[in-house]
């Protein structure tokens, strides 16, 4: 009598997950909601915020990596890039540049320094 034995390996252990980096993932915001939505779709989520304590709720989820990232700090951006390169072998699939601020007022009333600061964060 011949017996056959098949070993079925889940795809997720043999194929790298798609990856996404989302900035500005503080609890209650759009970045946090996107992080949860992508994680539910079996992606590796790199969730970032300038204050990591604001996204601790995401740290409990599988395939979510929390990184401290301030988009206005070159050193902070470079450190995150190196970490993500190492974890994805340089194959990050998506970037959601979500961290940002909004100023709602007539343009003539803008404080130019505040406007520059908003531009640096958002762009
Ligand atoms: N909600 C809306 O109706 C709406 C409308 C138009 C555009 N947007 C844009 O959509 C994005 C998300 O909106 P949201 O409502 O989820 O905003 P939110 O709750 O205020 O979240 C914004 C995220 O950006 C981060 N952030 C703000 N200023 C930063 C800075 N100087 N350096 C680093 N990180 C900074 C915040 O970090 P902290 O928690 O540390 O501040 C937070 O993680 C923002 O870019 C916003 O401008 C939103």
Automatic annotation (TrEMBL):
This protein's record includes keyword Lyase: no
Signal peptide location: none
Pfam families in alphabetical order: adh_short
Keywords in alphabetical order: Oxidoreductase
Keyword Secreted carried by entry: no
Source organism superkingdom: Eukaryota
A GO term from the CC aspect: endoplasmic reticulum
Gene3D superfamilies assigned to the protein according to its UniProt record, in alphabetical order: NAD(P)-binding Rossmann-like Domain
GO molecular function: acylglycerone-phosphate reductase (NADP+) activity; triacylglycerol lipase activity
Gene Ontology process terms (BP): phosphatidic acid biosynthetic process; triglyceride catabolic process
Coiled coil: none
Similarity comment text for this entry: Belongs to the short-chain dehydrogenases/reductases (SDR) family.
Protein name according to UniProt: NADPH-dependent 1-acyldihydroxyacetone phosphate reductase
Organism: Lepraria neglecta
């Amino acid at each position: 009598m011949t017996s056959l034995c098949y070993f079925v390996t889940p795809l997720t252990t043999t194929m790298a997950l798609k990856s996404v980096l989302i900035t500005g993932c503080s609890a209650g915001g759009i970045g946090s909601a996107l992080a949860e939505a992508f994680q539910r779709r079996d992606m590796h989520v790199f969730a970032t915020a300038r204050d990591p304590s604001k996204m601790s709720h995401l740290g409990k989820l599988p395939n979510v990596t929390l990184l401290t990232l301030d988009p206005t700090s070159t050193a902070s951006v470079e450190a995150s890039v190196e970490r993500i390169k190492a974890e994805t072998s340089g194959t990050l699939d998506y970037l959601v540049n979500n961290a940002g601020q909004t100023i709602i007022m007539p343009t003539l009333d803008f404080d130019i320094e505040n406007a520059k600061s908003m531009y640096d964060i958002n762009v």
